[in-house]
Amino acid sequence: MAATTSSYSITMRLHTAPDHGVVGAVATAIAQAGGIVTAIDVAESSHERLVVDVTCSASDANHAHELETEVDKVAGVHVYKTSDRTFLLHLGGKIEVSSKVPLRNRDDLSMAYTPGVGRVSMAIAEHPEDVWRLTSKGNTVAVVTDGSAVLGLGNIGPGAAMPVMEGKAALFKRFAGIDAWPICLDTQDTDEIVRAVEMIAPGFGGINLEDIAAPRCFEIERRLRESLDIPVFHDDQHGTAIVVLAALTNALRVVKKNLPEVRVVVSGGGAAGTAIVTLLLAAGVTDVVVVDRAGALSADDETLAGAHRQLAEETNPRRVRGDLHSVLDGADVFIGVSAPGVLKAEWIADMADDAVIFALANPDPEVDPAEAEKYAAVVASGRSDYPNQINNVLAFPGVFRGLLDARAHEITVEMLLRAAEAIALVVKDDELNPNFIIPTVFHPDVPKAVAAAIRGTTE
């Protein structure tokens, strides 16, 4: 049976015969079909019928429909209505704006709005730096996307990207107390995106670029960093890189290998892969080979151009060529930010002893983590239903908390390295093991440690 997940959780409202034994039959039917019952509530009981709400988790949408069908087959049971709990959670959106000040009477209104607010506006006009102190700018981030590379769903557009950006904003608030707002742009033109962000920048203390396809994202980030006086952070690149480096640091502690001595293979030469490689090199890794659809990137390959050419010139010191399987021979670490199923579990046997596997494609990883564990010493993925989830939530809230607190104008590679070290050190020596190399996103010390690292302070 495939693992079930709360993201495919449903609640079925059942009309049943007035026999509480039917509830057990329903639970049995769900279990036999591979679902997991998480709640059963009798909503109504009478001499004529029972109304029962059954909540269960499934492995995917098709499995959820299968569970509904199996329950409807139980004698004396009719599935009256089925609700998808994920869709219910999103009804009306996940975020809102609320006032931090009371607006109870004319006195409050005259200070929060006209005429009192005019005095504050004039003060800022005379001393522009006070916008950080007298407005929300100092605690506000714009989460900007064009909808061109949303999760693993591809180019689905700005409207379809909105739920993801709302989720990002909710995470900013939950983990770092930052007010973030989704800015979903109806353009995929680089110049228009850059100009749009430049025009809204005065209202924000930082810009979080999100789900913008490569290679366009590289130019957008570069140009915005040059033109704006607030930090610009592409989370798909740098957030991913921070958490990967943190996890790899601890994975190598488990297998007792040193970062400068390991051979690393990265599957995927897009935005995330490029940022991971850049940070690994800055951290001291000396042997990284990037493999894309056409095989290993090598500087002696004259067919390469653009971002792939630059990436090849910075990596693959042994100039190895070939497909992923051949390049993995003798490697210590595999990091996948590419596509489902590209790594066969048995290939891991060709890697060095105590291999480390990070299969980060979402929602379906490069290799089934359960299969990879048969061959590797440490396995991590981007999924929450397996140990060692590598999740950007460990990085970006603390990163922006530190940037905003410091009123930073930019983010540097040194900051990224410090952030990765801070996350790694949250896992203490007596906690570290092959199934716990990275802290949970709910660990209270993580955002504080990352923020301190970004500021260059200790807490």
From TrEMBL:
Family matches, as CDD domains: NAD_bind_2_malic_enz (cd05311)
Signal peptide interval: none
Domain named ACT: residues: 11-85
Keywords, alphabetical: Metal-binding, Oxidoreductase
Pfam family, one: Malic_M
Keyword Flavoprotein: no
Alphabetized InterPro entries for the sequence: ACT_dom, Aminoacid_DH-like_N_sf, Malate_Decarboxylase, Malic_N_dom, Malic_N_dom_sf, Malic_NAD-bd, Malic_NAD-bd_bact_type, Malic_OxRdtase
Family note: Belongs to the malic enzymes family.
Name of the featured protein: NAD-dependent malic enzyme
Native organism taxonomy: Bacteria, Bacillati, Actinomycetota, Actinomycetes, Propionibacteriales
